[in-house]
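User: Can you help me understand a structure? I only have the sequence.
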Amino acid sequence: MTGFAEHRSIATVALVVANYDEAISWYVDQLGFVLTEDVDLGGGKRWVTITPGKGQGARLLLAEASDDAQRDAVGNQTGGRVFLFLETGDFAHDHALMLEKGVEFREAPRHETYGTVAVFADLHGNLWDLIEPKR
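Assistant: Let's start by predicting it. Here is the structure, written out as tokens:
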């Protein structure tokens, strides 16, 4: 034990987006996420969080870019690497539904030692893995 609390978790991850409403619409309509909070903070800022399905895992804080440096990061927050990992218990079902909803997959599904996976891009081009881990 290093002195840190034993029960900690990553609860929220900030994702810089071009526009709050456009991002909410895309994540809700294309990925089936749930809008969990949308609070006006004044000055054009909002606290907007979304979660997958039933709220499992970390929530995403959709943060609208407010300066040139942030606008430059939209769609490339990790320098072109996969940024986020969306776990599923039924890869085939979710993959088919996402294709039907217009989600752009960058590759065909593949089977790895850790599970079934395919890379897709969000509305701004950030890369995600859709993954069904091996259990």
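Now, to help you interpret it: The first strand starts at residue 12 and ends at 17. The CA atoms of residues 26 and 123 lie 7 Å apart. Let me know which part you'd like to focus on.
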